[in-house]
Amino acid sequence: MLQKVFVPLWFKIKYYFEERSLRTTQPFHLMIKPAGPACNLACAYCYYLEKSRLYPGRTLMDESTLERVTAAYLEAHPGGEVTFGWQGGEPLLLGRDFFQRVVELQARYAMPGQRVTNALQTNGTLLDDEWAIFFAKEHFLIGISLDGPPELHDRYRRDRAGAGSHARMLAGLECLQRHGVEHNALVTVNRANMDAPLPVYRYLHSLGLRHLQFIPIVERQARESRKVTEWTVRPESYGAFLCEIFDHWALNDVGEVFIQLFESALSVWLGGAPTLCVFAPTCGRALAVEHNGDLFACDHFVYPEYQRGTIAPDNLSSLVDGPAQRDFGAAKALLCGECRACTVRRFCGGDCPKHRLRNAADGRPISYLCPAYRQFFTHSAQVLQAMAAEIRAGRPAANVMDVLRQLK
Fold first, then answer.
1. Which among 28, 44, 6, 8 has a CA at the least distance from the CA of 321?
2. Rounded alpha-carbon distances, angstroms, from residue 209 to 88, 183, 344
């Protein structure tokens, strides 16, 4: 069965596409960056470090900004579950006192019937037992970033002195596990690890990680360029990476290991929508908040022309549901003819506009990763259909493993 609902950086957030009778036309999610682009690492492929040019100087959220963002976010979602997503940069740079204040303000401003949860993405190098005790007590979901075994992880994930971060990350992960903190792994697929799918997967499994996401690194050399960086994953390699892991997972780990992209595809085979915003037909419901309360259209579009305003206690709904943001979300559906005719479009939705770096035959942009998604969604179709049939019949999806073993 589907155990988790995923979004791009895999927080445990329910991402709805249907209309709801809330103050806003649809629920939305804020990715809050309390440290802005500030980070204790300098990962080669990080797309966020460049945002320091937008905000020169100190970029740490102060208490007054925290309070107005908290109040506004809760006020805009008067019912149900509200998840605060804390990202960076490195959010742990704010310290435990900041996050203790987070919890206190959420308790102050939460309305009857609201359930407030927190999810935080970290590089793991600043984690210690005191952090883990706090996160366990306050029921934070922690995403930890790692790219595989030390030699693969440390290729791009280094600090400013050039030292690898794997050993420090691993010590942080062990703290989370020692204190029973709910956690998952964010794994980037890049030029260093793209040809080692099973070594990466087996290493993650050996660490006790059971909820995984594999995020492709696709970065331009410059904002207006369509040339990609040297660490960008090759499309054919990303497709093969997903297929190899899928085959191993389908034979051995269904029901025990949960992989973001596989879950999204299974959701579609079950008659639902993709559970990743990059694969949704439209977007615009996952916005980014900078350390000073500035609101941007998306985490991948933190540029001046995509700023929607600065959050105040009474304006968040109008900023999120304004015409500029609606147009931004609807533009995702403007697909080339090749996409519109594609048999896997319902699974990938044309991919994230950030990745549309090539021109299709009709001159419209198409995803750089199109070959990867064609390969994976076609390759996985038969097995995922079988899983969906088991689920519809009220049986565990894991039953497919027995069938595959017999066939093998």
1. 28
2. 22, 8, 29
Q: Where are the beta strands (DSSP E) in 315-360?
A: 358-359
Q: Which helix (H) or strand (E) holds 127?
A: none
Share in percent of the chain as helix, strand, coil (round to 5): 40, 15, 45
CA distance 300 to 159: 23
How far, in Å, CA of 204 to CA of 8, rounded? 19
Residues of the chain with pLDDT > 90, as a percent, come to 90
Cβ proximity of 62 and 290 under 8 Å: no
- Percent of the chain clearing pLDDT 70 (strictly above): 94
Active-site residues: which are they?
A: 299
* Cβ neighbours of residue 5 closer than 8 Å, sequence gap 6 or more: 12, 13, 14, 15, 275
Give per-residue pLDDT as tens, 138-159: 999 999 999 999 999 999 999 9
For the segment 91-143, what is each residue's pLDDT rounded down to a tens digit? Answer: 999 999 999 999 999 999 999 989 999 999 999 999 999 999 999 999 999 99
Q: What gap in Å lies between CA 46 and CA 297, rounded to an integer? A: 19
The rounded Cα 324 to chain-centroid distance in angstroms is 23
DSSP H or E stretch at residue 309: strand 307-310
